[in-house]
């Protein structure tokens, strides 16, 4: 047996000294050299992380983790400087939420607010319901904390009252429940509803229909109540989309804002920042949105004079406009390529549809609402939505910013009709974020933290994609995991496999290997795929095998229910794609095996990826080295991280891609994965799996 650890790699140190004392480098048990600051934590903060400190007394089983203390030092330094930036990769088990929440609580005041931003609703819920109450109970001074979501998450009382007077709500039991709930809820947050309301778009808060302080429901408005609490709080919990929406608003209207002015922002799940910013600073218009908007206008016909012939005409023009994209043979496409020779015709059509939308909006603005304030509010709101839709159409078909790409996607689910989404998205958010978030003239600082943030042992890829200054005041630190991967985890790579392909023979090979490993683990397996197509093919193969374990598939039920079912079964096999590669936490023996079908290189023909590759090569870079490889490294680390979630977890990660062993770039993946033992033999993996749950681990692994 040979113990295979990655070669030590030097973590990036602070670009400015962390203190008057020199930092030192030391090797951790994980095989990664970590930055260790020799200056002590501030006494008030250090006491929390001592062996007999505050956390040890509050959390049974707590023990000192040097990796956590290192992360705290980097975060504390950035917060203390107010305008500092810290990039922190904190491996699984480090305790990153406590590492940033405690410094935030000790620093924050109503006049120096801290924003804590997550990407997923799951982490936001965990922070709000578990981590923040814990930290609040441990800090010596009360700190006010507010949760603020995007406007569309809150019920609009004005639009609910308007909907109640319309025929489409008559006899709708779910709408009746919404009305009853509106009288008892304190937050109006859609997350409180025990069901998915299909017409939520008709009753949610919307910037175009909002009258602000002029609305007669203003004093009771759920959204403005939440905003007021945020204005008064010292710490505000948001998500990335809302944070970037605030930046976008301030960018075009410097005096306007969604969030209060703040002194510091902490981005958890920071590896999602590029995509979150690209979505926010771009626009998207679906083929269902305009017909839905026109249907709302038509419903007003019983109360105000509406030119229904004009409505039918513009509805027909909208269908012609979207038809080429709805019938695209490819799920993603450039608008011009998809439309082909018809693109110029469609550009003219978009201008014509936009003019008709404005004409309808002008007619609504002149409509006689007979002194009915509810109706007037509805008419004014719909007018603004029509004008906004016209502005988006013009950008989608006529926008000429060289940093933006015009592209679309089409798909359907659960047998529903196809829906196309047309997008105008920035290729690079670096110039935007460099100016709006990371410029030398900023008056606030930032921490970017994640379990998967670095690529190739440094943060160059992240910094280049987000516009973080290369020579500014940036503290960078990579901490390994405190978990014992060398004894508790085995990485299996079938070196003898052919390169990945889409052939039936290769699909059968993958299915057979997954079945063998699943039998060896007695279920308790995540089978992770890079595409829905391969998932479907392998699922069909494994169903025919009748393995005898519950076979759960993404899409059969909501993700949360799938995970709960997986936990309860204990021997289930769950097959999933992107949404299961991260943010899914199944500690203990219920999950013993994670199998990844191939290296997660992004789709090469995706319009966004094509545009980003072109941007890299135009700037003189190498598209594979500088873009594709680091992107895949981040993704692979996320998938690998599903297995070991606690110090006692054990199991096998199998990556069924021989390129890890046969290609030069395979080593770039392997050396930055957690330091598990490695083998090329599936019998080694089977022996290791057989020992899980046994009192003594004796399984070995060999490298050929």
Describe the structure.
The chain has 704 residues and is an alpha/beta fold. The protein is 43% helix and 13% strand. A 7-stranded parallel β-sheet has the order 5-6-4-7-12-3-13, with helices on both faces. A 7-stranded parallel β-sheet has the order 16-17-15-18-19-14-20, sandwiched between helices. The chain has a 4-stranded antiparallel β-sheet with strand order 8-11-10-9. It is globular. It starts with 23 loop residues before the first strand and ends in a 14-residue tail after the last helix. Mean pLDDT is 88; it is low at 1-39 and 695-704.
In short:
The protein is an alpha/beta fold and 704 residues long. It starts with 23 loop residues before the first strand and ends in a 14-residue tail after the last helix.
